[in-house]
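Many introductory courses stop at the sequence. We go one step further.
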Amino acid sequence: MAVQILLNVFLALVWMFLSNTFTGVGFITGYLLGLIMLYMMRHMFKSRFYLHRVWAVIKLFLLFFKELWNANVDVVKHAMKPKITMTPAFFAYPTELTADWEITLLSNLITLTPGTIVVHVSDDGKTLYIHAIDLDDVDEAIASIQNTFEKAIVEVTRT
């Protein structure tokens, strides 16, 4: 992926020199032309086309902000209720992620979402122990994390 990005920047710089336009517009034009060239040559690279991964990162950020918003709304709803009706709970979340930084990213995304916090990661990195301030169904919470954050992380990190 890094080679493709550097090659695209190099093609943009070559375009600027060949067209003798040393402006931002010249660079963007060269970058877009290089992007088209790299897309046409995408089968020559071992990894997938880098814009797929860039798009996956953007989707991960958008997913996080959506979950952040929804969690904040839920926490505010609980705070505004005159009677406390929360059912806090700890649960074990089995993860399919293998790399340490993937597990760390998942833990951070869960912890940064209000209402949940990762309190421990098992020594083998296969289980996250999570505390939720309001948990009705453990299986639903596990499926929700698997179908949102973990799926998005796998899409970003795996080729």
